[in-house]
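Ticket 4471: requesting a sanity check on a complex prediction with P-hydroxybenzoic acid. Repro inputs:
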Amino acid sequence: MTTTRTTVAIVGAGPAGLLLSHLLAREGVESIVLERRTRQYVEARIRAGILEASSVALLDSIGLGERIHREGFEHRGIYLQWPGERHHIDFVDRVGKSVHVYGQSELTRDLGRARDAAGQRFFYGVSDTVLAGLDTDGPSVSFRDERGEQVTIDCDLIAGCDGSFGPSRESVPESKRRIWERSYPYSWLGVLAEVAPSTDELIYAWHPDGFALHSMRSESVSRLYLQVDAGTDIAEWRDDRIWDALAVRLGDGEAGWHLTAGPIAEKSILPMRSFVMEPMRHGRLLLAGDAAHIVPPTGAKGLNLAIADTALLAEALVAFTKGDASPAEHYSERALRRAWRCTHFSWWMTTMLHTTGDPFEAKLQLAQLAWVTSSAAGASGLAENYTGMPIGF
Ligand code: APR
Ligand code: PHB
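Returned structure tokens:
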């Protein structure tokens, strides 16, 4: 058995955990990151793909924006459509901000490289992670390393950055946490296709058959999504059925627009839910990202919310190590204010665009879409939320 020591033990090497270790190191605060998966797995898994203006600004400010600007795509807006109509919402005109298309896996790789260069201590491939002493001045995290050896990290603080299924959230006594949750009766079928995007900017499409989204990863890779019923078996969706549904829902042939099909490299089903745990702190444990809250992917808030939490958390932890506990005491309240704003926006985008089979609801959705795309106030509200509220909002 090995015992080691650090200032902050960071559970999880997703974007929240990696970015946190980077922000702490810049302020001279030492950390150790432990991760259940292998590094290859973490860097290859396909996740979100949109960075808000405030996320890009933060990454720029710490020297991590170079590849985003070189290889990512800056988008000034999105298309919202329903049968027979496609409207562009121009974020730059509305609120003076844009977003960048840049895969979460690319960001994870950039962060990993930056941490390697700085000599970050990592444990990948750990199992049996247990958090202890959260109510004391000397918390610890124990686990088995990739060779099966028992390791304990004694620390001053623990950052729970272990995503939707990690142990951090569950380490808070039940009597001290409250959960807010909404599940949706539909999922997304996501595909990664080896074909040039058929659009310059993302298309969010309402359709009586269900929602569809055309996104992208590069000049030669498209990312597309279809609304399917919750519990759908992926085997029911052969590639030709997927392309046929995408063509119908995205409006192939309408006003001269065409969807180009291509080989599907990966496909999976993504369940949709909204989830918030309050508070985001218990004693010496502070949560960030998916460990504390989950949003449905419509509107691309998950990654950005994790980045915003992490910026606030780094500030709080650095102050704590310098003897000022006040930012840590206010961390949960500050992070939750923004988390709830994003929870609302993601719920709103989701319920505006996904069909439920209820004709009254469909009428309401179309009325809302017509307003958002024709009113300056409606479009500005969407643009302000999509491009992101300031960190610390
Ligand atoms: N011990 C150590 N690490 C763990 C454990 C554990 N017991 N359980 C889970 N983890 C790891 C996961 O393997 C994962 O790599 O924690 C990491 C959490 O990373 P993410 O799931 O990427 O969460 P986060 O960093 O908060 O980023 C949020 O990810 O899910 C997307 O849409 C979401 O884009 C958003 C982003
Ligand atoms: C993606 O590219 O994966 C993506 C883009 C926008 C969303 C959700 C996902 O709203």
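Notes from triage: The mean pLDDT is 97. Leaving this open until the requester confirms.
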